[in-house]
Specification:
By secondary structure, the chain is of the alpha/beta class. The protein is built from 15 helices and 13 strands. The structure holds pyridoxal-5'-phosphate.
């Protein structure tokens, strides 16, 4: 850690107001919220390896219902969840080839685990900042164990296909007999983009979905895979085999239940806030120009060091956790900042926050 990192972390911890960086609750505060949630959700006993009643089964039933799938299974991480479900599809199909974006999480963030542990052969469905369509799937010829899309594609600025594009991709995968899996790490956060469509409509276009409880929802951690009963039963076996069947998962499941109850209903407001912010961020480039989810990226024609110096001064003076630190881009002298709007931001005026961020960024 450099002295700048230390100063930044200290200033961030000392903030009394949170804007575009979520409030860091103390473990004690988070655990008392869980204790209260036990009575809210009628949880009187802990789970036993995720079974025998209790919070985990309640959470699984809730996720299955929200996504309109027959079953769902809780897993400790999305990384494990997706490797498990892709394994299930590939074994069934007798092919280890999986078509997915080159920017997808299993390609970019899992240290080659999917190949080393399961032997997947990844084929690039898309390259770079592109949303996957039926044409992309058609271009990956030969047998496939599964096709996977990330909805929204995080490393591309959280961009998502239109409903029509999704429908066409779904039809193409079904006609070809290829299981279509969705990395929905931010599915809750992008759902408002598909105005008038329920989460179950989205999930209905695909064969399996992974969702996360800790990104925009802010639970401790955890993931779920929703699919047909037999697929979920096989994913459970892989959860066990991969060492993901913790003796008691009640704390994680409870925090996820709380997040689904309190945060999920406000995702539409978060996306609307993001759009108002984006429209008011004068002098900054916003990608995508109109945010499609609660997450988007800001670009500024300044060096990250210059901006972070100003951001640190702002944090120290105002004690308000405005936004994350800015990072370098591929273009020398330009900086970028990924913004995620959570319910914390809703207490602030998006236009005013955009003005503050632009001032910090541009000087
Ligand atoms: C798009 C996407 N997929 C999967 C994951 C994996 O989630 P986890 O951290 O629970 O393993 C992440 C985590 O950041 C992600 O952003």
């Amino acid at each position: 850690m450099t002295s700048f990192d230390e100063r930044f972390a200290a200033a961030s911890d000392a903030c009394t107001v949170s804007v575009l960086r979520g409030p860091r609750r103390t473990p004690a505060a988070a655990f008392s919220a869980l204790a209260a949630a036990c009575s809210d959700f009628g949880i009187t006993k802990a789970d036993w390896y995720g079974a025998e009643g209790g919070a985990v089964e309640l959470l699984e039933a809730r996720v299955a219902a929200l996504l309109g799938k027959p079953a769902a299974v809780f897993l400790p991480t999305g990384t494990m969840a997706q490797q498990a479900v892709l394994r299930v599809w590939c074994e069934r199909r007798g092919s280890w080839r999986v078509a997915l974006p080159d920017l997808a999480h299993p390609v970019t963030h899992e240290q080659d685990g999917p190949r080393l542990l399961h032997g997947f052969r990844f084929e690039h469905l898309t390259t770079g900042r592109t949303v996957a369509t039926a044409a992309h799937l058609a271009a990956v010829t030969g047998d496939l164990g599964a096709a996977m899309i990330e909805l929204p594609l995080r490393e591309a600025g959280c961009i998502a296909p239109t409903w029509d594009e999704l429908q066409e991709l779904s039809t193409a995968a079904r006609e070809r007999g290829v299981p279509l899996h969705v990395d929905g790490a931010r599915l809750w956060e992008v759902a408002p983009f598909y105005e008038g469509r329920a989460l179950a409509d989205l999930a209905g276009l695909v064969d399996s979905v992974y969702v996360s409880f800790y990104k925009g929802l802010g639970a401790f951690a955890g993931a779920a895979v929703a699919a047909a009963e037999d697929v979920v039963a096989d994913v459970r076996r892989w959860r066990r085999r991969q060492g993901g069947e913790m003796f008691q998962m009640t704390p994680y499941a409870l925090s996820a239940l709380l997040a689904l109850r309190d945060e999920l209903p406000r995702m539409g407001e978060c996306v609307a806030w993001a759009r108002t912010f984006a429209a008011a961020a004068n002098g900054l480039r916003v990608h995508p120009e109109v945010p499609q989810s609660t997450t988007f990226v800001l670009y500024a024609d300044r060096s990250p060091e210059e901006i972070n110096d100003r951001l640190l001064a702002f944090l120290e003076q105002e004690r308000a956790n405005l936004c994350a630190r800015w990072r370098p881009t591929e273009v020398p002298g330009f900086a970028q900042c990924e913004v995620t709007v959570t319910t914390t931001a809703l207490a602030h005026d998006p236009v005013h926050v955009a003005e503050l961020v632009a001032k910090v960024a541009l000087g």
